[in-house]
């Protein structure tokens, strides 16, 4: 079986980008709506239009406790989210635009019946229903009380449409995914356009079921995806996220990016160290850094292997693959935020240069000393900061951990649970599943302990992938972790006087880690050894779901979500 051709649209990508302006049909004009989708080519173009980047925006890590952007906060992390927040309106608008296009395809594909077999028509409809399900899943998880329609609505109908029962919407999403899983291909041939697959439908069905607490459905859908035997974990965790890695065997559903076609990942300089020409502004939080286990499988406050002066030593390898380790090469320079390291080695030419990644030299170097490493390589320094890593919507590691989590929540603790978790963990260590002497293999334990293990595994595995936000929402942890302080290093003079001159670095003390994997830095703060950077806030009375956009409430009579 050809594993490189599962869920992509490479062959249709150029057509998509060239035609998406023409296909902005929401709704189609009256004349076109009566005739469009009468040929296979027109249907293909309409399907291409469902894959615009605006329709597949991911949740942002900056909405979570994994993140620090100097002293900045977001509408979510400062509890100012309301119906006028820009991304709240944009997500709503773009998602319904995509749904309208999908509904039009479903309704009109039979216009080409004389040119298509029933199998071809079913596959086109299945792809449109797959996209529709994915869009409704995003609406349901974020806004909850939404309008549901499977038909093209005129203005009068839209103005009187009522919000649907969330339980009904979830069942409709399941029905669309089930149809797609039954009718879509498992994989595509090398010469075929690469589109959504049965595995993508099963994986995303598992995700929405998990998010909605439907453990049985999540378990069964994830297992069905696993049983297809199409996907594997990418051999090297670090390489998976690089621009050079295209259409990985681990990607269940995702999209290519292309510098040539001007579809790229943006905002690169904020992630790049200052020595390499970036700004070093957007960084992992200390909360995330402390969540990575030690190599004995224990949290840092329990493991005798953890040394707060050398905090990367003896940690799960994904720690240093996600966050730049001190005194190691990164993008051509040795990275070291220590204020007494005024010069560093340029590893490209062997010279020493001013160390602009320490705040003793550059005031706006990383406020907490950390920088992101995951997916960031020398390609980021080329092409005017335009990079083209694949946009991964869901990958096989998520399928495995969703299966494990659903089984844990159902109380079905068996070897398949530990195997799923250990497959992900062993790959993080770069070893085989059976080489249990080379990594801290998980053993079956109590339901509470297994729940803690799988949640920690998800955090270590999916940092900087837009997964953490919905995890803390569905686990009802946002009110805890987003009502905490983002800490960082003291200003340089105080850092030298209160930490370095006493023989300490990087953490003056070992922070305590609670049952939810949350680090407590209060002792260090009380001792004056660290600095408060920003105070996160989360309003649990309303923020677990987003507001309905204000303009929709005012013009369409929709009911606003509680407490907005």
UniProtKB/TrEMBL annotation:
Pfam families: SusD-like_3, SusD_RagB. Belongs to the SusD family. The keyword Membrane applies. Residues 86-210 form the SusD-like N-terminal domain. The keyword Chaperone does not apply. Keywords: Cell outer membrane, Membrane, Signal. This is RagB/SusD family nutrient uptake outer membrane protein. It comes from Olivibacter jilunii. It comes from the Bacteria. Its main location: membrane. It is found in: Cell outer membrane. Residues 268-564 form the RagB/SusD domain.
């Amino acid at each position: 079986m050809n594993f490189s051709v599962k869920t992509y649209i490479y062959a249709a990508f150029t057509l998509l980008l060239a035609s998406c302006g023409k296909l902005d049909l929401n709704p189609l004009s009256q004349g076109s709506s009566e005739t469009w989708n009468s040929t296979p080519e027109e249907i293909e173009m309409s399907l291409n239009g469902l894959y615009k980047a605006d329709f597949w925006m991911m949740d942002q890590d900056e909405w979570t406790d994994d993140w620090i952007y100097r002293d900045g906060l977001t509408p979510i992390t400062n509890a100012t989210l309301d119906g006028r927040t820009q991304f709240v309106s944009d997500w709503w608008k773009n998602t319904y635009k995509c749904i309208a296009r999908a509904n039009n395809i479903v309704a009109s594909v039979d216009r080409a019946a004389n040119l298509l077999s029933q199998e071809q028509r079913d596959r086109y409809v299945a792809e449109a229903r797959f996209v529709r399900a994915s869009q409704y899943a995003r609406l349901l998880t974020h806004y909850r009380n939404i309008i549901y329609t499977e038909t093209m609505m005129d203005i009068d109908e839209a103005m009187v449409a009522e919000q649907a029962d969330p339980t009904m919407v979830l069942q409709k999403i399941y029905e669309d995914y089930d149809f797609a899983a039954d009718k879509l291909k498992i994989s595509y041939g090398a010469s075929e356009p690469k589109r959504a697959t049965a595995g993508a439908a099963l994986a995303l069905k598992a995700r929405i079921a998990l998010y909605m607490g439907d453990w049985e459905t999540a378990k069964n859908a994830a297992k069905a995806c696993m049983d297809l035997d199409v996907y594997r974990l990418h051999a090297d965790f670090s390489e998976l996220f690089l621009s050079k890695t295209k259409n990985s065997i681990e990607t269940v559903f995702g999209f290519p990016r292309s510098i040539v076609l001007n579809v790229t990942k943006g905002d690169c300089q904020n992630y790049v160290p200052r020595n390499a020409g970036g700004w070093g502004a957007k960084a992992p939080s200390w909360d995330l850094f402390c969540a990575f286990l030690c190599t004995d499988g224990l949290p840092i406050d329990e493991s005798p292997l953890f040394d707060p002066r050398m905090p990367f030593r003896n940690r799960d390898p994904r720690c240093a693959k996600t966050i730049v380790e001190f005194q190691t090469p990164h993008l051509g320079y040795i990275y070291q935020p220590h204020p007494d390291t005024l010069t560093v080695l340029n590893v490209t030419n062997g010279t020493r240069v001013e160390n602009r990644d320490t705040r003793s030299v550059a005031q706006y170097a990383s406020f907490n000393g950390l920088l992101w490493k995951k997916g960031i390589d020398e390609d980021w320094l080329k092409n005017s900061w335009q990079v083209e890593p694949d946009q991964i919507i869901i990958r096989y590691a998520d399928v495995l951990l969703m299966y494990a989590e659903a089984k844990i929540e159902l109380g079905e603790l068996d070897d398949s649970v530990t195997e799923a978790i250990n497959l992900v963990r062993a790959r993080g260590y770069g070893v085989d599943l059976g080489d249990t002497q080379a990594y801290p293999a998980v053993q079956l334990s109590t339901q509470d302990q297994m729940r803690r293990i799988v949640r920690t595994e998800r955090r270590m595995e999916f940092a900087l992938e837009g997964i953490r936000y919905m995890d803390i929402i569905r686990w009802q942890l946002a009110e805890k972790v987003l009502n905490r302080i983002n800490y960082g290093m003291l200003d340089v003079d105080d850092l030298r006087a209160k930490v370095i001159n006493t023989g300490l670095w990087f953490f003056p003390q070992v922070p305590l880690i609670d049952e939810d994997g949350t680090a407590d830095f209060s002792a260090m703060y009380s001792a004056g050894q660290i600095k408060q950077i920003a105070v996160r806030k989360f309003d649990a009375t309303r923020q677990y779901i987003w507001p309905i956009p204000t303009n929709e409430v005012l013009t369409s009579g929709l009911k606003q979500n509680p407490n907005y």
